[in-house]
Amino acid sequence: MDTADAITYRYGEPSSLTDAGLPQWWERPSNAMPVDAQSGGVPKGGRPVNKANAGTYQVGRWVEDVGGFSSNWGHVGFIPDRPAEHIGMADLLLTSISNAVLTQRPELPWMYYGRGIDAIALLEARSKDALKLVGPPVAMGRCHGRPGWGVTSILVFADGLVVNAGSNTQTNRAHCRLPSGKVPTAVAVTNSNEFALITCWDIEKVRGEVAVIALCALPEGDSLDRLSRKDSWGEWVEPYPGLPNLGNIAYMKLLGMVPLPETMKAPTEISATTGMDRTMYLSAGAEDSPRDFPLSVEANRLKFKPGAIYARAIPTRGQAVVISKSERRAVFIDLTPLIGYYGSMYFSTPERFQRTRSVGDRAGQWPHTFAEAPQQVPRVVKSVTLADRPTAVKCYAWGNLRQAWIATQQGKLLQFGIADGEAKGSIDVGANPTAIELAKEKAINAERIYPDYSRELIVTSRATRSVQWVRLRDSGGEVVRTLRDKRLRDPITACDTDNQGSELYVVSVVDWAGKAVRNYRFGALNLYPAYRAPRYGNGPTGDAEFEYGGGFDMPGRPFSLCSSNTS
User: What domain range includes position 481?
Assistant: First the structure.
C-alpha cells in the first residue's frame, strides 16, 4: 500500500482531459522576505534566519512591525523518486502571515533554518529512537475538531509502525506497532486527538479490522517518565490517554482490533467524529485551561463528572464510518462504548480513577486493552451495500448536520445519517472523486464565502482535474465553486487553511502527476485589523474568482496532505 500501484487502486486512473479550455489563474510575483539585523539584514522585524532560508511573500506591503503572526503547517506524504534519499513525508509551510504580508506559496519552513524537505519528526524518530522507517507512510490522519490545535499527524507505515509527527512547536514523539499480518490502509483521528483508528486487512484471517489506539498528549518535551508540570499552551500536565488534548502526543497504546463484518475484507478509508463543538472544550492557554485542573486533585476531577461544571468538555459518544472500494460497502461503527468507558474510568468513582494512574504498556496498566476490558470495544451498527464503488468518506466534525458523506467513483456524493446509516440524499460531483475534506472556520467571514462552514465540503475529483466546494442541505446540496487550472494536472486531495485573526481563503492541492503541492486563493485576504491593511482581492484587478498562490515542486509524487494552524 506504499507503492504507485496502490495509488491507482485507491484513487483510480488519472484524468485523460487535456488542457484545452482550462484557465490559467494569475500568479503574483514573489518578494524576498527581509531578515533582521542580527542575521545580516537591515530591517527591524525581519525573520531571524539568513536570506537563503527566509522565504518569500506575495501579498501586501512589508512593514517592520511583525504584528500578529500565524501560519499553516502541512505534512505531505509522497512516493520519492529516490527512496534512498527521502523518507516520503515532508514538512511544508503552506501559508504564513507577519509584517502585514502574506506568503501564499508553499515553502520549506523558515523556522527549520534550511534543514531540508524531509519531516524532521521522522528523521529524529529514525536517529534518536532507532525506528526503522520502511517506505513512505501508507496514510496519515489528523483531528478536525480543534481548529488551530491539531498540528500533529498520526502516520502508519506498511509494516505496521505507527508514529506521530508535529511541528516546530510540537516535537513530542510516540510510537506503537500493529500486530503482524495486518496491512494498514487508512487513518482517522477523533475530534481532539483522543483516539486514532486505522483500517487494516488481516491477511491471515482474510477479513477487515479497525485498530484502535489511545493517544496521550503532554507539555512540550515531557514524557511518561519525565513530567515537568510546566505550562505548555494550557495542555494537561499529567498523562490522560483517551481524553481531549492539544495534540502534542507523547504516548500512544494499541488497545486492540475491532472486527468488521465478514462482507468487508478490504477496507480502504475511514473517518471518525465525536461531534464535539470546538467551543465545548476547556480553553487552550487561557482561563480554565486543562493545565489548571490536574485530575489527581479530587476537587478538580469532580468538576468533570456528569452534570458538573466542566462535564461538557469531555465527549460522551462518537461514530466512525469505514468504506471498501472493491467490495462496494460502507460500515457504520458506534464508538460510544469506547468513549463512555474512558469517561467512567476517569470521572466516576475514586477507585476507578486510581486504576488510570499507572500508564504504560505492561499488562494491567492504563489504558486497558480490549482483552482486559472488552466492554469498551466499539460495535458495528450497520453495513450498507452501495451501487457504485466508494472512493472517499468523511464524517461531520460538529454542528446540526450530523451526517457522513461517501463519494462514489461515478461522481455521486451520498449523504447518510451518522448514527444509523440511513440514506439522506445525494449530490452530483466530478467523476472519480478521490478526497472529501471539511471546510475550515474563518475569522471574520466578511466575504460570506462560507455562510455555515459546518455545511461546506471540499471535494477533489481526479477524473475532471477539479476541486469543488459543495454546500450541503439536510438532503442534497449543490456545487457552488469549481477550481480548475492548467497547472493542476492530477489533483488527489485538497486542504483548506485554518485562520487566526486574518481572514484567509487558501486551498492547498496535492498534484500527483504534476509532482507538486499547489496553492490557490479563492477569497479576499483581510489582514489582522491592527495592520490597517487594505483588502486584497484575487487577480490583477482584485475581482477574480481564484488566484494562483504558487507551487512547491516535490522530489516525488505526493498523495496525501494534512495541515493546520500553528503560531
Answer: 1-136+434-557
